[in-house]
Amino acid sequence: MPELRRDPVAGRWVIIASERAKRPDDFAGELAPTPRNLPCAFCAGNESMTPQEIMAVRSGGAWKVRVVANKFPALMVEGDLSKRGDGMYDLMNGVGAHEVIIESPRHEVSITSLNDGDVRDVLWLYKQRLLDLRNDYRLVYGLVFKNVKDKAGASMEHTHSQLIATPIVPLQVEQEIRRCSEYFDYRGRCLLCDMVMQEMQSGARMVMDSPNFIAFEPFAARFPFETHLMPKRHMSHFEATDDALLPELARVLRTSIAKIEAALNQPPYNYLIHTSPLNVRSLDHYHWHFEIIPRITRVAGFEWGSGFYINTVPPEQAAAFLREVRA
Amino acid sequence: MPELRRDPVAGRWVIIASERAKRPDDFAGELAPTPRNLPCAFCAGNESMTPQEIMAVRSGGAWKVRVVANKFPALMVEGDLSKRGDGMYDLMNGVGAHEVIIESPRHEVSITSLNDGDVRDVLWLYKQRLLDLRNDYRLVYGLVFKNVKDKAGASMEHTHSQLIATPIVPLQVEQEIRRCSEYFDYRGRCLLCDMVMQEMQSGARMVMDSPNFIAFEPFAARFPFETHLMPKRHMSHFEATDDALLPELARVLRTSIAKIEAALNQPPYNYLIHTSPLNVRSLDHYHWHFEIIPRITRVAGFEWGSGFYINTVPPEQAAAFLREVRA
For a Cys-Cys bond, which of B68, B80, B108, B229 suits B50, CB 3.0-4.6 Å? Predict the structure, then answer.
């Protein structure tokens, strides 16, 4: 059973998951490349190579998008959530869900090779999984994320994303929610709604402006071409997004990524959804959003140890470039 | 002039330093290797290739350790600190210091190739630089760090470290200090002093126990073989360390790194010092420490976006291994 441990100084939780060390590429003096000569477990026809299917979108009997349990889960879905102390330290059992969303039956390596309708199905499944996991009272947060290419942490080439649901709120999200709550107390408005307004008025950092969503380079972007995407109207939970909005969201997400891929020559990247905790109904002060992070620069000790980043490309320049690029 | 911008949601400051983009390896679709065929600017004899010397330790006329301005500074030491707003955003001029500590006149690629006395001189220069920068009233924090090998963000092979002094306290340090302050309010003791006590009593995560310092694997280590090093006696500021303790600290630091190098076959790594802000005299609740972070695993979107890490090697296992390894 993995363990969740909290660092008392930094406040962050860490999964100490010794079971995963069995993956040969997880731990070595050098980063091992992912073997490419094995049959792909995510391709249609190889379903028996994955753990059990949790949910899928089907069309005429064949699956289009498929959610399965992670074969090397960081957290275990069975078991009690036993919280305890060890002197000054806090820990609990590593209870949680770790799922993989296989985004296509074909061996595509980028989500942008899918059409907008396929991407809509992927987003719809994110939503369904989060709605389902809300029923598990041990879990308080669902983090949806995507790793593309080795350098961004992907161990499979076939386009996919992941969902980890945890019995704690991750530190970075907790801090964002706290800061947004302070802002709300002071101003009576959602910080992220105000940000949408200012970005639309300024336009300098906008990448895409669609009726219900914007994609933009954040004012204090940590990384060159870091791109955020959020609904214009206030919405605390991703899973509360109306199904009618998903096709538009799919188009904005897919196009934003395609622009980044075109601008940076198919870079490794991550995206993730910051949303509100599973165990609260709705919040006036927090607003879900996507963060898309191209991994084209090295992160050095300075950044790691300080949370203080150096970005060599002003977000206004990156935005101007992305607005123009064809995708 | 670079700009310091604050992300209103996350609270973190980012240096938007467009000047640095001129370095060809700073920005490219693929990470470019550092050229190795040019003469090394850090070697004795090539002093004219570096910006002006700020300070040095000399012996018989020749320098042993040398501090110079960074040729590609992230922040500029000249200029006023003009703080301003842009709608809901906060920013200020990128005023600060960015220095390089060249640790040897010879082309050594690891600090462990130096002897303990040389490492003592490096630490003594860290101290002198921090003491000197305290006199600049624009600056509130001095971050000393080291990047080793490309994968950890080094752009020079020759053993060196860096110091960035900033007009803000980096987010991660600010949060640590706040949490330690809450702990002090509640318990009347320094959290890190309590941690030293518990680690010494338990012993399970200890790597080195020296009269005045311990090196250990933290309870909630983010990374395999992450190692922290701190004074046993309470001390808020690194630069307040008595010169008489520096030889012992040099030995513990050098040996800890040598153990990690032996265990992991010369991995890329970072270290950095977390210390108290330059503009406060001394704090009862915060305690300086080194964080040594081997960069042997990929950091994926999950970690980036959540501040929630998966570590596949329990710190107790790593500590047992490091205690035994010869160095």
Answer: B68
- Mention the CATH class of domain A3-169: alpha beta
Candidates B11, B145, B297; nearest CB to A302: B145
d(CA B288, CA B236): 5
Range in A108-112, A280-284, B15-19, B315-319 with the lowest mean pLDDT: B15-19
Splitting chain A (327 residues) into consecutive groups of 10 residues, what average pLDDT does each group show?
A: 94 82 42 64 96 95 96 88 94 95 97 97 98 96 94 92 95 95 97 98 98 98 96 98 98 98 95 96 96 87 80 94 93
CA-CA-CA-CA torsion sign (A17, A20, A21, A26): negative
- For residue B187, how many other CB atoms are within 10 A of its CB? 12
User: Nearest CA to A224 among B3, B180, B27?
Assistant: B27
Rounded CA separation B201/A87 (Å) = 11
Interface test with A, best of B311, B313, B317, B325 (most A CBs within 10 A): B311
Find the closest chain B residue to A25 by CA distance: B297
The answer to whether residue B137 neighbours chain A at the CB level (below 8 Å) is no
* The domains spanning B3-170 and B172-324 adopt the same CATH topology: yes
> CA–CA separation, B42 vs B168, rounded Å?
30
- A30: its two tokens: 């050098």
The 3-class secondary structure across chain A, one letter per residue, is CCEEEECCCCCCEEEECHHHHHCHHHCCCCCCCCCCCCCCCCCCCCHHHCCCEEEEEEECCEEEEEEEECCCCCCECCCCCCEEEECCEEEEECECEEEEEECCCCCCCCHHHCCHHHHHHHHHHHHHHHHHHCCCCCCCEEEEEEEECHHHCCCCCCCEEEEEEECCCCHHHHHHHHHHHHHHHHHCCCHHHHHHHHHHHHCCCEEEECCCEEEECCCCCCCCCCEEEEECCCCCCHHHCCHHHHHHHHHHHHHHHHHHHHHHCCCCEEEEEECCCCCCCCCCCCCCEEEEEECCCCCCHHHHHHCCEEECCCHHHHHHHHHHCCC
In this structure, how many other beta carbons lie within 10 angstroms of the beta carbon of residue A164?
24
Is there a contact between B222 and A153 if contact means CB atoms under 8 Å apart?
Answer: no
Which tens digits make up the pLDDT trace of B285-297? 999 999 999 998 8
Contact A145 B301 (CB under 8 A): yes
Domain B172-324 annotated CATH 3.30.428.10: yes
Is A133 in contact with A126 (CB distance < 8 Å)? no
Domain ranges of chain A: 3-169, 172-324
The distance of B130 to chain A (nearest Cα, Å) reads: 16
> Closest-CA residue in chain B for A292?
B301
- Please give the CATH number for the structural domain made up of B3-170: 3.30.428.10
